[in-house]
Amino acid sequence: MSLVLQMRRERAELNDQLQALAKIEADGGSLTAEQMTQFGQLESQITALTDKISRAEIAERAAAASAVPVDESARGITGPPESRVEGPYGQPAKGAKMAQMVRLLAAAQGNQQAAAQMAKDGGFGTDVQMALSVVTPGAGGVLVPTNFSSEVIEALRPASVVRRMGTKSLPLNNGNLTQPRITGNTVVTYIGSDDDIALTGMTFADTKLAAKKAAALVPVSNDLLRMAGVNPRVDQLVADDVTVSMGLSQDLHFIRSDGGSGLLPKGMRYWALPQNLRPAPTATGITLEQIDLFLGGMMLRVETANVDMKQCGWLMPPRVIRWLQSLRDGNGNKAYPEIEIGKLKGYPFGLSNQIPTNLGADGDETEIYFVNFADMMIGEDMDLVIDLSKEASYKDGSGNIVSAFQRDQTLIRVIAKHDFGPRHVESIVVATGVDWGAGM
Fold it and tell me: Which residues form the Phage capsid-like C-terminal domain (predicted)?
């Protein structure tokens, strides 16, 4: 029996004695002088034991956090992969199992049966072995099991600013989801004793989400894949690359895609009502009062729309928040000191380079978004499909064609299906033509 458990049992026995004495008075009796002394002693003993238990629990947690296998020198990096792929506090990193699938398929040149055998021989988890044994590769790639893809989708939350700000994720049933939204609230009125109650009611419309196919290309160094038996963090690196690439792609479309031809999700910029697209005052000659009034006006648009304000926040490119951070009042004090703790005018902000900064006639404008993210929805099809190629080419961030074969890389393609939409379009306000910070 552990020391903590032993002390807890002892404390429970003392507490039973204490409760028995307390019951005497609760039943209308009174304690003798001897019983009063015993009551005080029991109380002191219970307090002392509670303090000891607290210290022992801290010691146990510290010992558990620093514990290593007794045969670590023998196992180390050659132990089963699931024992090495760690996230915060030693827990398995989200998406690592899918990364193991990717790595094994890459090592097996895409041969699913060979990859399954490698998983078995290499001591990988039974879930990874089973996933590779039962899936059937097709023209689109290998279907990732739902339990693995769920981990990846959860891992996207810190990688995607739209998800991180509180957007809800909902499952798509057969690729579709229809969510009713209230367009007019019930009106409650006061009436006289002889008056008829007026008919009133809510009015509704629908937000319809339909699965859109998104593909992310993730180049991974073959040197990195070859180091799988040497570097205990390879799977986590692959998982991070996949989730970052998917997160950036989703932010790009969830924020500003026009939903062209129905093939793309429609982003917040194009869901916003025309009256909620607010031209920003130009930076030249602008006063702090004008800036504050403009930002407050954006907030007011949402506040007067009768929506729940519990998850509101700002989205903007980094240059805008740095410009606002540099503003000073007439006494030299920071105009918005709360930026240091991640807030602007009382609401959190998220930064994204997926909001372009080259808009407008002069190519120096951008946008600011104020959104109630509690009203935003992402419909998720839980199926992820992965495919690999060592010969394919891709475009880098500068638009240059890169050969995966020439660079000794494996190109991973991840295909996901999802859609984006708001429950209330009134919850999105966009500042357009923002040239703030253009010269930074």
Answer: 140-432
> Pairing between strand 428-434 and 366-372?
antiparallel
DSSP 283: S
Q: Which residues contact 344 (CB under 8 A, 6 or more apart)?
A: 295, 314, 321, 324, 336, 338
163: nearest Cα among 255, 256, 271, 258 = 255
Q: Which two tokens stand for residue 52?
A: 């000891």
Q: Is 29 helix (H, G, I), strand (E, B) or coil?
A: coil
CA distance 97 to 87: 12
Hey, which residues does 379 pair with through a beta bridge?
Answer: 170, 419
Q: Are 81 and 100 within 8 A, CB to CB?
A: yes
Task: Answer for the pair 422, 376: CB distance below 8 angstroms, yes or no.
Answer: yes
Helices (H), 257-278: 268-271
Structure tokens at 39: 């009551």
CA pair distance 335, 329, nearest whole angstrom: 6
As to burial, measured by CB atoms within 10 angstroms (0-12 exposed, 13-18 middle, 19+ buried), residue 155 is buried
Q: Write out pLDDT tens, residues 3-46.
A: 767 787 888 888 888 888 888 888 888 888 888 888 888 888 88
Cα 167 to the center of its chain, rounded Å: 9
Contact of 236 with 203, CB cutoff 8 Å: no
pLDDT digits (tens, 9 = 90+) for 218-255: 787 777 766 554 444 666 667 777 777 778 888 889 99
Question: Is-contact 319 217, C-beta < 8 A?
Answer: no
CA distances from 286 to 292, 297, 300, 301, 369 (A): 11, 16, 21, 22, 20
Distance CA 136, CA 73 (A): 39
CB-based burial label for 29 (10 Å; 0-12, 13-18, 19+): exposed
- Helix ranges (H only) for 160-287 are 161-164, 222-226, 234-256, 268-271
Determine the Cα–Cα distance for residues 323 and 47; give it in Å rounded to an integer.
55
Q: Distance between CA atoms of 370 and 438, rounded to whole angstroms?
A: 20
Reported in sequence order, the residue ranges of 3-115 that DSSP labels E, i.e. its strands, are none
Amino acid (1-letter code) at residue 320: V
Read off the tokens for 238.
């692959």
DSSP annotation of 206: E
